[in-house]
Amino acid sequence: MKNNKPPEQNISIGRWRWTSRWRKPRRRVVYTCLFGHSEPFSDWRYESDGSIDFVCFTDDPSLSSSFWHMHLMPPCLLDPGRASKRIKHLPHKYLASYDESLYLDNTVRLRLPPAAMFASSSGGMCSSASVTYTAVRV
Known about the structure:
Layout lengths: L10 E3 L2 E3 L3 E2 L4 E7 L17 E7 L10 E4 L7 H10 L1 H4 L5 E4 L10 H6 L19
Parallel strand pairs: 4-5, 4-7, 5-6
Antiparallel strand pairs: 1-2, 2-3
């Protein structure tokens, strides 16, 4: 039996991709949390083509960065550790406009660009992924 379907075409124009119909690319975000003045903010900068947003949730209005978007959270009844974990474990609630998210601890610096981390997660087919890292003395 002959397949009469035309071959699939892949054409990219800017941030749009054509594969039999136009569709928006997946919205991606890298996020971290810093609550309670427990450590200084590690203002890591990563390779970015503008397709990934970088967000830091914090309760400190004095924090600023030219790379990370600071999202000031209102005071809550939780201690700093639990406030951070709430956002870390509920990205679908706090980052609902994104399709994929990558949480980074404030003290961790990626060796690869975040785009490579997203690409290695099976093209967004997995709901959760973890990465093994080794502690490095600084």
